[in-house]
Amino acid sequence: MLKKDFTTKEDLMTILKILNDSNIKYWLDGGWGVDVLAGKQSRNHRDIDINFDAQYTQEILSLLKDHGYEIETDWAPVRMELYSEKYGYIDIHPFILGEDGTAKQADLEGGWYEFSADYFGTAAFDGIKIPCISARGQKVFHTGYELRDVDRHDLKIIDSLLK
């Protein structure tokens, strides 16, 4: 069976509702995060990227599995990618949250990425307030790897938001 190529706005809104109902602290990231910051969908998105409070890793995995997701890539504690025939791909990233609003995430070499508090914010999209990575955070998160066309597209939007 062919896999779902893109996550729709409806998929996104469903996943955000599921997460909001769970009370797990999270932030939307990646391409959908950029589009939410900009207030409109600008391109197709393969997945939904979610950064979340690492102390709830088992809870978020159970929640997603209850909604038809199965783990496809497990690079814990860095990230996990799950797939649902109904909702498509979701990429989850556990963050260890500091009391001062900062966070850190494990990297693949056994070290840490560290993030300042101003990377975490909210944006209004489709009539709701969504926790998401700020434009400044998105700019940093779009470094350190070879950029694809979709990343360059997102960076143009991020740069316009930072002006």
Descriptive keywords:
5 helices, two-stranded antiparallel ribbon, 163 residues, single chain, Beta Polymerase, domain 2, 9 strands, seven-stranded mixed β-sheet, alpha+beta
The H/E string reads HEHEHEEEEEEEHH
**Mean pLDDT across residues:** 97
Ranges with pLDDT <50 over ≥5 residues?
A: none
Which CATH class?
A: Alpha Beta
Structure classification: alpha+beta
Tally the structural domains. Answer: 1
**Residues in helix, %:** 25-40%
The biggest beta sheet, please?
Answer: 7 strands, mixed
Organism: Anaerostipes caccae (strain DSM 14662 / CCUG 47493 / JCM 13470 / NCIMB 13811 / L1-92)
Protein name: Lincosamide resistance family protein
InterPro entries: Aminoglyc_AdlTrfase, NT_sf
SSE layout:
Elements: H1 9-22, E1 26-29, H2 30-38, E2 47-53, H3 57-66, E3 70-75, E4 79-84, E5 88-97, E6 103-106, E7 112-115, E8 120-125, E9 128-133, H4 135-141, H5 149-162
Parallel strand pairs: 2-5
Antiparallel strand pairs: 1-2, 3-4, 4-5, 5-6, 6-7, 8-9
Helix pairs in contact: 2-5, 4-5
